[in-house]
Amino acid sequence: MSTRFLFFLFAGLPVCAWALLSGSGTLFAAREKERERVFDVTGIVRARLDDGQLVIAHDEIPGYMGAMTMAFTPAGPEEAAGVAVNDRVRFRLRVNGGRSRAEAFVVTGRAAAPGKPATSSQGGARRGRLREGDAVPAFSLFDERGQPLTAEALRGRLTIVTFIFTRCPVPEYCPAISRKFDQLQPAVRKGLPAESAAKVRLLSITLDPEFDRPDILKAYGEAMGADPAIWNFATGEKAEIDALVKAFAVYRENNGVTLDHTLATALIGPDGRVADIWRGNGWTVDEVIASLRKAANVTGR
Length: 301
Known about the structure:
copper; elongated; Thioredoxin domain-containing protein; metal ion binding; alpha+beta; disulfide bond; Thioredoxin_domain; CATH 2.40.50.320; disordered N terminus; 17 strands
């Protein structure tokens, strides 16, 4: 199985700064701090990825997240050496700042193979997948202030667009992308001439529009330190989000409990076409700044 970054819909995340998002007590992460938290986890191994991660359909983790399916990173190759797909397991999850690790795996039994997922939005299909040079399709969304946001509004700008959702708590995933966007804010001002920097826009589009309404995104942005002059958030009708998910080839699956998805971050040029695209969370701020400079025809240091 090829390595994929899997992301999931959770109930909360350990952080220093918490923001209460709903009357039911659902929380999102603002900025992780050093305090380590340790959780006992049980679940069923559903896949082993090429990079050593284990995809596990786990039970509720009290105080951290609800039951769902996600990829866990073992603390070392020996931690899960004897674990096989469809094993029932028990293990410890350590979460510390921007890092989480699974350890002390114990196989407790076997489970049947999973059935077919209930629903999916498979943007990973090759048909309709945006590539460099392709025009971004028309869309109609709303930003964190509730103001309309369309593809036409991106014309003449340099837009870095990505996909997240506010209830995603695993440090290496959605929070990691938001941390990188936070780092991009000063990097853009430092790495580009003022005239070019003024054209840059960072845009985080939610994958969870039913929950992430404008007020939720606004609170999330404030918690993340987003400067609305450069970094905005967007939500919209499910059909609009689905169309963008498909266009950017973001795999997303919702079986009624979980939201699993892959990552795509792209640079949209002033002409409304994709200038660059990065899959997963491995891209660096320097890579994006270099791509922005190229798109803005900036030369020299």
